[in-house]
Model the fold of this input.
Amino acid sequence: MSLDAQLDRIAARAEELRAMLAGGIAGEAYVRASRELAEIEPLETRIGELRAAEQARAEAEALRADPEMRELAEGEIAALDAQLPALEHEIRLALLPRDEADERSAILEIRPAAGGDEAGLFAAELFGMYQKYAALKGWRFELLEYADTELGGIKEGIAEITGRNVFARLKYESGVHRVQRVPATESQGRIHTSTVTVAVLPEAEEVDVQIDEGDLRIDVYRASGAGGQHVNKTESAVRITHLPTGIAVAMQEEKSQHKNRAKAMKILRARLYEQQRAALHATRAADRRAQVGTGDRSERIRTYNFPQGRVSDHRINLTLYKIDRVMAGELDEFIDALTAEDQAARLAAAR
Done:
């Protein structure tokens, strides 16, 4: 279908929805029609702007034949020729199939990979970086699990980040993040390379993933020492295993077994939902292990080089020499560039 035909169909659908709403529909049908109209009205506005610009250009082209109006007409044509491609580009972007998970909140999981203690230390710093980014965005950042080490690093950090379009902004952060620097424990001053895996999963509601209680094995045990934020003598820690997939989630952050179980179920639901999405969308990883890679030093999406003060994203060949600001949560320059690259690739594939 041509672009013009698509735009005509959208404009006609908007009019049809308005007629339905004015015609007295009620209940769930009214809610559905209102929601659909709200989604397409911004696009309808852009279509109207495009049509008006096209009409104005045609009128200016006609005026070119008049010697007295030629200079004025050519100036208007030049301005419209600059405006039209931008309007058309905006509309093509709006027509791209949307990832229905984009508007959702997200589960962030960070774990050290290669590099021992230094990887654990950098994992803690990355966890803090995303917490600062969430604060800059006005999102809520809730700790689900934080297993720390004696040196101040982490074995695992999991958080729920709640807000509008969280997953849309953070989904490109999944993968292996590499750090190059001289560790505090390095006496010879040598630069070490370590890696950390990051996984960002769209948060799932209960209606998204149906979990049969019979498919779960639930083990309870006492919370351990280092790595948990508390130690107690009751069996408050919970491990839930989803038997059909083998996915297991352990939680000991809370002193209440009930709260640990609720948090573990939230993470399990998110992992199962992402697995379903992966099966439906071949372009995404087939499972979480593929999403974050093996953690080997040669695999990486981004490198943080502290001696040179630079951060490089290898997927888009973008290097920023402001590592302190990036670690302080200023990630938008990377995320905007990654979003634009993804949109460009999808536009090219849609043509």
About this structure: Residues 226-230, 283-290 have pLDDT under 50 and may be disordered. Residues 155 and 193 are 18 Å apart (CA to CA).
